[in-house]
Write a structure and sequence with these properties.
Distance between the termini: 51 Å
Shape: globular
Largest sheet: 2 strands, antiparallel
Number of strands: 2
Strand content: under 5%
CATH architecture: Orthogonal Bundle
Order of helices and strands: HHHHHHHHHHHHHHEE
Strand order of the largest sheet: 1-2
Helix content: over 70%
Radius of gyration: 19 Å
CATH superfamily: ABC transporter involved in vitamin B12 uptake, BtuC
CATH class: Mainly Alpha
Number of helices: 14
Number of domains: 1
């Protein structure tokens, strides 16, 4: 009898349509962030993921304040921010970390001010700060599915140029890879990914899900293609399990998902041994302008 009661209690979330919907979105969002995570960490763009999520929050607040389409406005704002950071960094006016800090922090601060000043802004984006299991609608499911599908198409169809760009951007450009176009495409997919997952993860924690899965997978493999698969799977499992636990713990979905992925990282880190930790050390090593590619096989 006790076993039956336990089984009933554990299966309770699956009998709630809004929780099932939220878990589906969390799994897809986690997989999406996990896929992009590999390119972000190996190219030394981890801080950009953090900054982009904060910037898009500002764009969302501006869109809500003027009554413009939330998705289009925030997406364009995020893309413009990413390209602006890239332009400033490329011209070496200031360092990339300083550019990200100045531009994206100002955008996030603008969003917070608008949220305080306008009631409709507060209603529209309140759940996007930390994520909310109650904020996930049927439209969010379709939105995350569409963004995940487009991102997968982009990554698969441009697998070799992106791989070349990740490992050696200077040689890639000489070899005919259109670095600017690839960077813009990656920035666009990152912007849409952040925007589509805001309600589940929250803008303050999206950066963690754009980094942690690839760090875990780097501990487990020395090849690029398996790293992509592992990172995507880890993101999906972390998203689904985190959302499931957030229902029982009555906690915001974003922080719970991040805690689950952090626990997985700790377990893998402790069990990986010296060999796995040497791989992880490569993420902090600069090699032809691409971080984290030292000792990593480009293909299987």
């Amino acid at each position: 009898m006790n076993h039956m009661m336990l089984a009933t209690a554990l299966s309770e979330p699956f009998r709630q349509p809004f929780v099932v919907r939220a878990m589906l979105v969390a799994v897809i969002a986690g997989a999406l962030c996990g896929l992009l995570s590999v390119y972000i960490t190996l190219r030394g763009m981890s801080y950009l993921g953090h900054g982009l999520s904060h910037s898009i929050f500002g764009g969302a607040a501006v869109s809500a304040a003027i009554g413009f389409n939330f998705f289009i406005g925030a997406g364009v704002w995020g893309l413009a921010t990413g390209l602006a950071i890239g332009r400033v960094t490329k011209r070496r006016i200031i360092g990339s970390d300083a550019a990200i800090g100045v531009i994206t922090t100002a955008s996030f601060a603008l969003g917070l001010v608008l949220k305080a000043l306008f009631r409709r802004v507060n209603r529209s984006i309140d759940a996007t700060l930390f994520g909310s299991i109650l904020g996930v609608s049927r439209n969010d499911v379709f939105l995350v599915l569409a963004v995940a599908a487009l991102t997968t198409v982009f990554v698969v169809s441009n697998y070799r140029p992106l791989l070349f760009l990740t490992f050696d951007p200077e040689v890639a450009e000489v070899s005919g890879v259109r670095n600017g176009l690839m960077d813009a495409g990656l920035m666009l997919t990152m912007s849409f990914a952040v925007l589509a997952t805001m309600k589940v993860l929250g803008v303050t924690l999206i950066a963690a899900t754009l980094v942690t899965p690839s760090v875990i997978s780097r501990l487990l493999t020395n090849s690029f293609a398996p790293m992509l698969v592992l990172s995507t799977a880890i993101g999906a499992v972390g998203g689904g399990l985190g959302m499931y636990l957030s229902y029982f713990w009555d906690t915001p979905s974003g922080p719970t998902i991040v805690l689950v992925e952090s626990a997985v990282f700790l377990a893998v880190f402790l069990g990986a041994g010296a060999r796995g930790r040497r791989r992880l050390k490569g993420l902090a090593t600069d090699h032809h302008g691409a971080q984290g590619t030292v000792g990593l096989a480009p293909a299987v």
